[in-house]
Design goal:
about 260 residues, three-stranded antiparallel β-sheet
Length: about 260
Amino acid sequence: MTGPRGMAGAESAIRVEDLTVAYGEKPVLWDVDMAVPPGVLMAVIGPNGAGKTTLIKAIMGLVRPVAGYVSIFGKPYLSQRRLVGYVPQRNSVDWDFPTSVLDVVMMGRYGVLGWFGRPGRAERKAAMEALTKVGMADLAGRQISQLSGGQQQRVFLARALVQDARVYLMDEPFQGVDATTERAIVTLLKEMRSEGKTVLVVHHDLQTVPEYFDWVTLLNVRCVASGPVEKAFIDRNLRLTYGGRVSYLTHHAAEETFGHPEE
């Protein structure tokens, strides 16, 4: 990959330039540009097959791009990975693995300890504090296979919190959770933003975008628009993103409902 143009990447928590990713001969992301400033809560929205999950994987170097450049605070991801926390889709994890809630959360400290470091009292304390934040401290000793979907998602969030990252990438954190858990997650995300964290969330519910987020990226293989919600989340951009298939398109006229497109 080529380097960033000039020093613009230093201004952004996440910068994506000219990013193209293909599976075989099929482009999944095409010439995507996106700059996420520090301290914002950004939704990434788009229809099925838009490349939302692939974007997160490309930022983290989990897929190799055909072209383009990604930086975290102006430097390549590999040199900044300790600054990045990740919450994958819940359905991508083997929840039958025999381990406890507390152990899963302490795994978030391995980036600091190294894989051969043994978590001690400080790591256990940090994990319990994170579980308290997400309302799961009472279940620290429970096996993860015994948790509900919402509880599993809270554990993932706690694991990300103990990383004490500056940038968080979250893939569908609201998927399959109950209303109480969703409210708890939103509260936590806004607390993280108030602490100066940058949070990028793959999201599917258009109606909640203006309530939950202050920035948004509209993606459909190409980046249709990216910026503050009041400027980017508008009728024209949503029509371009979803091909005119949604009837409600601006947060100024939230009268109709529509489906929940997912990755």
